[in-house]
Amino acid sequence: MPSTPLNYLNQFATTTLNVGGGINISQTTGIIVQSVSGLDITKAGVACLTFSDPINTAAAEWVTFTSINGSNELQGVVRGAEGFSAKTHSNGAVIAFPISESHINNLNAMFDTIGLDVAQIATPASPSAGRNKIYTKTGDKVYSLTSAGVESTIATEAYVDANAGSADGWTTSSNTWVYATASTFTIAGVDRTAIFTKGTRLKFTQTTVKYAVVLSSSFATDTTVTIAINTDHTIANAAITLPFYSYQASPQGYPVAFNVLVTNGLECRLSIVGKQATLCGWSFLLQASGGSTTVLKDITYIFTFANAPIVVAQNIGLKYTTAPTVLADLNTTVTADGLYKNFALSAITTTKFSAHSGQTGDAGADTYRGFSWIVIGTI
Length: 379
Fold this sequence. Notes:
With about 375 residues, the protein is mainly beta. It has four domains: about 15-115; about 120-155, no CATH class; about 170-245, Beta Barrel (Elongation Factor Tu (Ef-tu), domain 3), CATH 2.40.30; about 260-379, Sandwich (Immunoglobulin-like). It has helices at about 100-115, 155-165, and strands at about 15, 45-50, 60-65, 65-70, 75, 80, 95, 130-135, 140-145, 150-155, 170, 180, 185, 200-205, 210-220, 220-225, 240-245, 260, 265-275, 275-285, 295-300, 310-320, 340-345, 350-360, 365-379. The longest helix has 14 residues, at about 100-115.
C-alpha cells in the first residue's frame, strides 16, 4: 500500500451495518455490511457510518478500509477518518460510500508534498493505438510501453548520471544479454536495434572482461546482435554479466584491433571505427618447383562489406622448401627465384579478393612468396 493511499470511489451506493448489537468506538474488525452490491471490494475506500442527508455530524463517522472480504467484512479499517471522531453505531445503521476529502487530498499530497508513491508492476497489456503506458517495475527504472508492445527504459536522472555520462565512455545496458552462438547474443522481447547499430563497441564479462564490435542487429520477437568474430574474445555458452555499450571510438579498455581468422590469411587484424572496417594481414603464394605455373589464392573476409572495398597488397619476402608460419620466416635477401613474374590482385568483391602470380620456369625449389595486404571498406 502507498504511504498515503489513494482511495477508490464507488458510484454512490448504500448498504447497512450487519453486526448484532452494533459496534463500539474502538472496534476495527468484524465490521460487516449487509450487501456489497455496486462496490469494488478489492479496492481501498472510504465509508460513512450512520449516513444521513444532510449529514448529522453528531452521529456520523467516516472510516477508511483497504478492501472487503468474501464475508462482506471491511478489512484494514481505520476509525475516525476525515476529521471525524469514532462513534458507536447500531446494527442496521445506513452505510454510504460518498466522495470525501481524502479522495482528492491524498492525491494532492502526492503531487505537492510527499511525492508519487507508485506500485512496481509486471509488464502490462499494450495500450490502444496511438498511446503509451508509463510504469515502474522492480529496480530503479521507469518504463514505457507502446501500442505495438515495445517496452523501453526511460532514463532517469540517477540512471543517466550513473551510466550515460560515465567518464570511461561506457554505458550500462539495461537489458539481459543471452548467449546464442559464439558471435551472437539475444535480448528477449524488446527491440534494441536502435542501440546496437553497426560499429557499436561492446564490453561484457564471462569470468573475464571481453570486448566486441557489432556487425548487425535484428528484431523478431527478440533482438539478435551479431559481433565480428575474433580469436581474442568470443561469446561463451555461459551467463553474460556487466553488459556495456559505447559509441566512442576508443572507450576505456577497448582494444585497438582484434586478431581474426580469414580464409587463407595469416596473422590478420581487424579494426572497425563507425561503419568503416579495416582488415590487414599477410599470406603467401606457392610457386612449385619444376615448370611454368600460375598460382592464385583467395583471401575471404570474416564478413560481407556493403560495397567492394579498397585492397592493397605488396610482396614482402620469400621462403624456400617449406611454408612460412610467421613473418620472420620470410627472407628478403633470397634472390635465386628469378623465374617469378606478375604478382597482381583480381576479383575484388564484397566477400574476398584474389592474389596471383606466375613463373616461367623452375625456381629450383618450392618457393613461398609472402605478401601483405590491407582491406578498407564500409560494413
